Amino acid sequence: MPYYFRLGQVPHKRHTQFRKPDGGLYSEEVIGAEGFSGISSIAYHLHPPTVVERIEDPIPYGVEYTDLDFLRHRHIKGFEIESGGDWLAARRYVMGNEDVRLALAEPTDEMDYFYRNAVADEVVFVHEGEGVLESPFGVLEFTAGDYVHVPRTITHRWKFKEGVKRRLLVIESFSEVRFPKRYMNQFGQLLEHSPFCERDVRPPSELMTIDAEGEFEVRIAKHDYLHRLFFRYHPFDYVGWDGYMYPYAFSIHDFEPITGRIHQPPPVHQTFAGRNFVICSFVPRLYDYHPQAIPAPYNHSNIDSDEVLYYAEGNFMSRRGIERGSFTLHPGGIAHGPHPGTVEASIGKKGTEELAVMVDTFRPLRLTKLAVEHEDPDYMFSWRPEAFASPLPSNGH
Ligand SMILES: [Fe+2]
Asked: Model confidence at 395, in pLDDT bands (50, 70, 90)?
């Protein structure tokens, strides 16, 4: 929901005659959230978006969680989870709840269908990879470090550049994903104190406007199934659209960190908000500059949050034994904090190159069986002073 945007041709007045060169009418569609009260866009198709030729049996696409005892700190080695196949086949769910689900994906094959998630916004953090997201709203280029936000109901297709490794963190939100309200004024504009602004948001750049007839499969996620509908007309047939609902990209490298004399709390890293969860970006930044400052975070009991960190790049100052692609899950109910030695080691350090994505949920998360299979069983005990046999290296990480 970044801001009003328009691409291509739209009539001067909505819901009025808008004709093709041959005199026929374009087919208007309002794509809107929460009835007619949420954000929306109005699109103009070459052909009606309603013509379905046939339907095939749906593909089961639910997520099962384990029923193990969850009150433990967890470390899941994400890069050890094998993946492959096309965009949806490659998705490996690791945890979730009623509000949000997290998956990793390492797609190896092209999509030979189009995809639409009818129930969840998808925010995809491109850890590695490069390519274009195609949708009727236009072509959206992405590269490593981008968050690509695809609002629910938008038909799309991911196309990756050949020869470039692909690793994605997929965040599915069963509610609209938006920017934090406190970053915006009453008019919806991002304020001066926001760590990013509208210029950092990249909408689709160019329409595709494909006029083609045939059978175009759209796989629609709903009710734990992928429903297979075959439409007569190519779904990327907009000649124009305008409004607030569209896919866009935002690079984590355009997030300007907020720093201070003493340790700043995690909300300064917040980037997105959904129902009962937030997404935060930890980016390279200077450390606190009070002469007595302790850059490492304090121990904390975040009573109403389960905190998930996905480690992308760099050394994570307060953690030891963490790898690229690791998840940590620190659930509400038990305190967590810096690993032994990291508090002292952080003192006097000037900055960090860490890059990580955090998802804090306000309702408890459940893990999948796959996540548990790739868990470091010793992580819960890694705060014992004797847990790490070797002394800290001199750089403190
Ligand atoms: Fe925390």
From this structure: very low
